[in-house]
Write a structure and sequence with these properties.
alpha+beta, five-stranded mixed β-sheet, 20 helices, 22 strands, metalloprotease, Peptidase_M1_dom
């Protein structure tokens, strides 16, 4: 028990400041152990030192808080076993903090919001790092397999609404949120690389926090990194202070903990628009620049016309090595995206536009609990498709939508219509990782509900006006579904009078809580010019006699198709697999060489057809593909398919030859797939013994499988929109 010093008596001695307007308590989040409902988090400051050789992050965290009730006994934060807390301390917030002059490297205020904070404490381990404060007792208790609870005892007689600070010093090692890459796992093979991934509940291993989307605050950070390493964060302002050798960041708008993100490595910038630049390793920068130059500004401008001003200042993009566990992440001001997607132009366009849409839906207005992720993903998907319609036309948007809805029905077939994860309002049971709720229903069933709402008002432009008003009303806050629906009915009083929320079979409550497919789907007839040829070609390959069908099919030049057309065609063939061997032989003769020259999104689908049909003549293409890929999105689906058929020995052989080039987290995941059905003496790697099936890293990264499905009934990663 830490001793209390005399300054702990001070909070009750001074008059409390004027009480701010009351705030509603955050929604109860069963994924958070925190006492967020008892406090107002005003700001957080991070002092971080990156130690790549030790794969360790040292941190000093300052939380600026107010208690919502008098004399709270303790502050409870979300934490993780990977965090080792060294000390906790209390300090009254300086009465004149807002009037203090900015330090030499403070950020200039930009727009509305709190003034930039005073300088952070010095780096962990530096002399004088602690401000004048008193130590606090703390304890760490188990919570779930993805986190712990950190309880910090507070001084007695703390008054309600009186600002105070809690200072925590810690180190983080082997944290699920922090991905350390050796140089050989980067494209340049020159410098170490590190990035964080906080969605959904990983950032509690990055820093102790209220790890719930219901709580938002501004933040600032000072980061010290090895020489020659560029550091970026999801912040509205950033500065490199050369004489101090540190990077300083400030986020002026409130964000939830999961959107605090950091990346550091051999990164160089290139401007691609008046408020956008790309960051990438030097060897990737020309490709990234050429593919996105001018386009991002076009998408941002289209989104602003639809939903109001872009609120975050800059929109930059950083391309990460293939070890990035998902396709893209909408970190404010700085979208993270996997570099592997660069070769697939249409997927790149859709994924970046989806993250642009999150700037309004998800980042500005956030779902208050993980049980209603559709409020971010469904709305962002709807906005994404409005943006693509404005910029690329309705036909392209309908094609992409048909492609995704096809995947949704495939997922439904695998899971069954009674699956609880097919609800929009999913019940999150205590102890279940919210990442396991990330599935196509969140995106596509959510999209269908939003599209249905837009059809009720009869005019997409009027619905755009509603969404603009919704963002304006709720920006920088977190909401529940009822907030959206009440706002919708208030904006359209004529619909409220018609009781559209209670229409038989289409009740709003049924949309939210019924399992199964969407109650209604959009009219995609405007995309028929692109989808009809796909249907026709698929029908030819399933027709009799095969010789005539193959001859007719070979006359159709798919090299001129859009990527989504070819992918949709191959997905249909995958759905029908296993196919008759003579059909697979004819398909290979007709398409194999052509598809082998296309992008990875096309190649992986053809190779899955090869694997699911045990077509040995094309296995060399599978080997070559796996030898060249290091990302989850292009390896996991193939290994899952290889291990559910007669090709597990082939999978083991390829894995032996390539495992050294894979990130340890991905390596462990593949080992788990390979071990399915093997006896205890038939392990694929000596590392498997220490990387058990309950690896905390894989428990904390977005689920490849929903629930505890075995690979034999796996939902392939290709069936899940893994852009967050």
């Amino acid at each position: 028990m830490a001793a209390q010093c005399c300054c702990c008596k001070a909070p009750g001695a001074e008059a409390a400041p004027a009480r701010p307007p009351p705030e509603p308590p955050p929604a109860l989040d069963v994924a958070s152990a925190s006492s967020a409902q008892l406090f107002r988090l005003r700001h957080l400051q991070l002092g971080l030192e990156l130690r790549p050789e030790a794969r360790e992050l040292a941190g000093c965290l300052v939380l600026e808080l107010c208690a919502l009730r008098p004399a709270p006994r303790a502050l409870v934060l979300d934490a993780h076993p990977a965090l080792r807390l060294h000390s906790a301390a209390f300090r009254r917030a300086p009465a004149a903090a807002a009037a203090e002059p900015p330090c030499a490297f403070a950020f200039a205020a930009a727009g509305p919001g709190p003034a930039p904070p005073p300088p952070l404490p010095a780096f962990p381990g530096a002399p004088g790092a602690e401000p004048a404060c008193c130590p606090l007792a703390f304890r760490v208790d188990p919570f779930t397999d993805y986190g712990s609870s950190l309880t910090v005892t507070l001084p007695p007689e703390l008054q309600a609404h009186q600002p105070f600070q809690v200072i925590l010093r810690y180190t983080s090692t082997d944290a699920p949120a922090i991905w350390w890459l050796d140089p050989e796992l980067t494209y340049g093979n020159a410098k170490p690389f590190v990035f964080t991934q906080g969605h959904s509940v990983c950032n509690r291993s990055f820093f102790p926090c209220f790890d719930t989307p219901a709580v938002k605050c501004t933040y600032s950070a000072v980061v010290k990194a090895p020489s020659g390493v560029q550091v970026l964060m999801s912040a509205t302002q950033s500065t490199y202070v050369e004489e101090e050798g540190v990077y300083r960041f400030h986020m002026e708008h409130p964000v939830p903990a999961y959107l605090v993100a950091l990346v550091a490595g051999d990164l160089q910038p290139a401007d691609i628009g008046p408020r956008s630049r790309v960051w990438a390793e030097p060897c990737l920068l020309p490709t990234a620049t050429s593919k996105l130059s001018g386009a991002v500004e076009q998408w941002l401008s289209a989104a602003e016309r639809l939903y109001g001003p872009y609120l975050w200042g800059r929109y930059d993009i950083v391309f990460l090595p293939p070890s990035f566990p998902i396709v893209a992440m909408e970190n404010p001001c700085l979208t993270f995206i996997i570099s592997s997607i660069l070769e697939s132009d249409e997927f790149l366009v859709i994924d970046v536009i989806h993250e642009v849409a999150h700037s309004w839906f998800g980042n500005a207005v956030t779902n208050a609990t993980w049980e209603e992720m559709w409020l971010s993903e469904g709305l962002a998907t709807y906005a994404q498709r409005r943006i693509t319609t404005e910029t690329y036309g309705a036909a392209f948007t309908c094609l992409e939508t048909a492609f995704r809805l096809d995947a949704l029905h495939r997922q439904m077939k695998l899971l069954g219509e009674d699956s609880p994860v097919s609800k929009l309002q999913v019940k999150l049971e205590p102890g279940v990782n919210p990442s396991h709720l990330m599935n196509l229903f969140t995106y596509e069933k959510g999209y269908c509900f939003v599209y249905y709402l837009s059809q009720l008002c009869g005019d997409p432009q009027r619905f755009d006006d509603f969404l603009r008003a919704y963002v304006e009303k709720y920006k920088f806050t977190s909401v529940v579904a009822q907030d959206l629906l009440d706002s919708f009915l208030s904006f359209f009083p004529e619909l409220k009078e018609q009781s559209v929320d209670c229409r038989a079979g289409l009740e709003f409550e049924r949309w939210l809580n019924a399992t199964g497919p969407p109650l209604a789907e959009p009219d995609l007839s405007q995309g028929s010019s692109l989808t009809r040829p796909v249907e026709a070609l698929f029908q030819l390959w399933t027709a009799e006699p095969l010789d005539q069908a193959a001859a007719s099919a070979s006359a159709i030049d798919i090299s001129k198709w859009k990527t989504f057309q070819t992918a949709l065609f191959l997905d249909r063939l995958l759905d029908g697999s296993p196919l008759p061997q003579e059909v697979v032989m004819s398909l290979s003769k007709c398409y194999s060489s052509l598809l082998d020259s296309m992008n990875a999104e096309i190649r992986i689908r053809w190779l899955q057809i090869v694997v699911r049909n045990d077509y040995y003549p094309d296995l060399h293409r599978v080997r070559r593909f796996l030898e060249s890929q290091m990302s989850r999105m292009y390896t996991i689906p193939l290994y899952e398919d290889l291990c559910t058929g007669a090709l597990k020995s082939f999978a083991l052989e390829v894995f032996y030859q390539t495992q050294g080039r894979l990130h340890p987290n991905l390596r462990r995941t593949i080992q788990q797939i390979l071990c399915q059905g093997l006896g205890p003496s038939a392990e694929p790697s000596v590392e498997q013994a220490s990387a058990g099936a309950d690896s905390e890293v894989d428990a904390d990264t977005p689920a490849l499988l929903l629930g505890d499905e075995a690979p034999s009934s796996a939902i392939s990663l290709r069936d899940v929109n893994v852009s967050a």
